[in-house]
Structures
1.
Amino acid sequence: MEWGREFAEALGYRDFLQRHATPEQQARWQAVYDKVTLTPAQRELLGGFVREMHVLCVAGAWCGDCVNQCPIMGRIAEQNPRIMVRFVDRDARPEAQRALAMNLGHRVPAVVFLSEDDQECGRYGDRTLATYRQMAADRLGPACPTGIVPPGDELLSAVTAEWIGQFERIQLMLRLSKRLREKHGD
């Protein structure tokens, strides 16, 4: 998969919603976006990233899991211009969807983390551990959330922390990369 090409053709958070979401879906994403808050420590951590990161998210505006997680990625990207998050629609880019299949399924959101020169560094997605724990504890409701009701504050904070942890993991990988350290002289 040519992730660099996919990233170059992908859309920013707002443009993705404008192109792929209905007004009702946009309202759902906005409700979660408005609830996402980063702690001062999280903002400081993200603001201190020195390596450029390209983060490509395969999503669906209609998907409840995307509604509950992609706004977090939007907030993360706002903390540092070196964190570039772009989105592609799962159904509009079937080749990206197939390349990021998990457990033989086309789950979203699915993220591929890339270096500044678009080398794959990691993948993450579907649902976070906190979400799976909550689903297991509840054992009620649909298997795939609708996004109509935003997640509770405690779950949203846990999911936000897990996503930030993934961004930090990749940033540290990039920061410690011998190849990139030689390139940047650090």
2.
Amino acid sequence: MATRSSVESGQLLLAEPYMIDPNFRRSAVLLCEHDEEGTVGLVLNKMTDIKLNEMVTGMPPFETFVYLGGPVSHDSLFFIHDLGDLLEGSREVAKGIWWGGDSENLNFLISSGLVEPHRIRFFVGCAGWSPGQLEEEMETGSWVISPMDANYAFNSSPAELWSQAMFNKGNRYEIIADIPEYVSWN
């Protein structure tokens, strides 16, 4: 069972295989912030068919799709990247993964061609848990904690990410990774 001390920012949460909540079914969630005030994460594997410039006006042309980051704050756009200190105001949340940053600086980097679409992911909304809520969900077996790898965020196929991360945990998780999403698919 997970305790408050075992859940940390920068980890990957993997939904148990038969989670009913459609917001998190087969989700891989990067924990961006976890402290006494609660938890904020981004669902990494729910890509929409909406392009960034269709959703956000005032940004330079940038060919990338927006991801659904979770069921909270749908009026907000979040982003993670591998630009490090090149993007002012960003904060490293896991090795090779930074969260947020100055939007004017980001627009300049995009306009200058210094950011390629595979180096940044944009999310509408986020996942959020009140203090103690995530630990309660961990105790009921809703989530599996996994180490985060920057490749999951920037190089993995969204459709394969959950299975890939589950398989990479090894042992019994390799079997869980192969469980079909719907039992009728057996």
